[in-house]
């Protein structure tokens, strides 16, 4: 059974701090890795994708992938109250025919 | 990314009735999926909508309960049949655009919030 696990949180950080969100997955043949942000009452919004080991930066967001450890993380620098949301980790395999979503981590950024 | 619309955005239905949800994309997509998200839960894949053929259902979901159509590359419908209160959920379609970032990057529609009384 392929699984994607996240700490459900809530993770609370002060405004301006770095928020670190973590995700582990069980399938070694997983190919693509995604982070989605979901505000309450809204649909998931893609914020980052990563395909190879290492770091990928986009603005205040950095995704980190370690395939050997089956671990993917998302760092949010200079956290803002508007970053308060649930962050979903997703792992794709089989050429995109299958994507598994984690249960999500709730993030609260305190002003 | 593709612009995805869903109709209706929300509905309140009586048990035993059926509701058809539409998903329309403004550009061609390779894959379309239907998900369910119950309150406080993550996404559960219902099925992959295949153009011109029967949808591929995940374990626990059957065609009689959730018939799906996909007549072309930009449109799909999901019907929730013979509804019960347990079907109350948000239903989301997602797509993989033809010209997207990769062959497996999914983008989500705004969702349909269904309440069954």
Keywords for this structure?
heterodimer, A: 111 residues, mainly beta, five-stranded antiparallel β-sheet, B: mainly beta, seven-stranded mixed β-sheet, four-stranded antiparallel β-sheet, 11 strands
Quick take:
The complex is a heterodimer of chains A (111) and B (117). Chain A is mainly β. Chain A is built from no helices and 11 strands.
Overview of the molecule:
The complex is a heterodimer of chains A (111) and B (117). The model of chain A has no long low-confidence stretch (mean pLDDT 92). Chain A starts with a strand and ends with a strand. In chain A, strands 2, 4, 5, 9, 10 and 11 form a six-stranded mixed sheet that branches. A five-stranded antiparallel sheet of chain A has the order 1-3-8-7-6, with no helix packed on it. Chain A is built from no helices and eleven strands. Chain A is globular, with a radius of gyration of 13 Å. By secondary structure, chain A is mostly beta strands. In chain A, a hairpin with a 2-residue loop joins strand 6 and strand 7 (61-66). Helix content of chain A is 0%, strand content 57%. In chain B, a hairpin with a 6-residue loop joins strand 5 (44-49) and strand 6 (56-57). Chain B is mostly beta strands and 117 residues long. The relative contact order of chain B is 0.34. In chain B, the strands form two sheets. In chain B, strands 2, 4, 5, 6, 9, 10 and 11 form a seven-stranded mixed sheet that branches. Chain B has a four-stranded antiparallel sheet with strand order 1-3-8-7, with no helix packed on it. Chain B is 0% helix and 50% strand. The radius of gyration of chain B is 13 Å and the shape is globular. Classes of the chains: A mainly beta (111), B mainly beta (117). The A-B interface holds A 31-32, 34, 36, 42-46, 49, 51, 88, 90, 92, 95-97, 99, 101-104 and B 1, 31, 41-43, 45, 48, 90, 92, 96, 101-111.
């Amino acid at each position: 059974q392929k699984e994607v696990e996240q700490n459900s949180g809530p993770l609370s950080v002060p405004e301006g701090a770095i928020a670190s969100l973590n995700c582990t997955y069980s399938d070694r043949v997983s190919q693509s890795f995604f982070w989605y942000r979901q505000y309450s009452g809204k649909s998931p919004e893609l914020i980052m994708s990563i395909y190879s080991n290492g770091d990928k930066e986009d603005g205040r967001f950095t995704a980190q992938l370690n395939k050997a450890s089956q671990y993917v993380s998302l760092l949010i620098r200079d956290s803002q109250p508007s970053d308060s949301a649930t962050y979903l980790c997703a792992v794709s395999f089989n050429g995109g025919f299958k994507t598994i979503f984690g249960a999500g981590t709730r993030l609260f950024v305190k002003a | 990314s593709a612009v995805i619309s869903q109709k209706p955005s929300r509905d309140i239905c009586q048990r035993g009735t059926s509701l058809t949800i539409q998903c329309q994309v403004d550009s061609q997509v390779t894959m379309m999926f239907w998900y369910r998200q119950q309150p406080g839960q993550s996404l559960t894949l219902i099925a992959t909508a295949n153009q011109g053929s029967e949808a591929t259902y995940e374990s626990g979901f059957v065609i009689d309960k959730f018939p799906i159509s996909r007549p072309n590359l930009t449109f799909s419908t999901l019907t929730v049949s013979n509804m019960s209160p347990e079907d109350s959920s948000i239903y989301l379609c997602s797509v993989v655009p033809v010209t997207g970032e990769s062959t497996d990057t999914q983008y989500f529609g705004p969702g349909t919030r269904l309440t069954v009384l």
